Each structure stands twice: as C-alpha cells, then as structure tokens.
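Hi everyone, sorry if this is the wrong subforum. Our group has a chain we'd like a structural model of before ordering constructs, and none of us has done structure prediction before. Sequence below.
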Amino acid sequence: MKGIKVTKTLIILILLFNGELLKEKFELPIAMTAYECLDFADKYRETVATFKNNHYYLNDGRGTIQGFIC
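Answer:
Right subforum, don't worry. Here is the predicted structure as tokens:
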C-alpha cells in the first residue's frame, strides 16, 4: 500500500465503573488502513458490548467502551 499508512494495533478505551480509564491494546490480525481499523473496531465493539442507555456496556460487566485509537 504505497503512500497509505497502515496499522497493526487497535487501542480500546474502556471506562471502568470505578472511574479508572483503561487503554487495552489489541493486535490486529493483519495490517490495515485507519479506516479499515475503525470498521474492525465497530465490529469488535458489537461483539464484546451491548448498547443500552446511550452507552456500550461491556458484556463482562467491567464498564463502558469510550472509543478507539488506530
């Protein structure tokens, strides 16, 4: 991909219910553009969280997803 920057890392911003902000690093299976990474992040969020009351609550009960960094 000449001239296009690629990434292999997704950082998920998680706000725990105790107020702590976590930055969880997720290694992507292949290098992808920032747009592809954000699309992947949306699909990942739909898998690990449930949308309720205008927030994405993690299915494991730790807190909410606040955003992504690719």
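For your construct planning: The radius of gyration is 13 Å. DSSP finds one helix and five strands in the chain.
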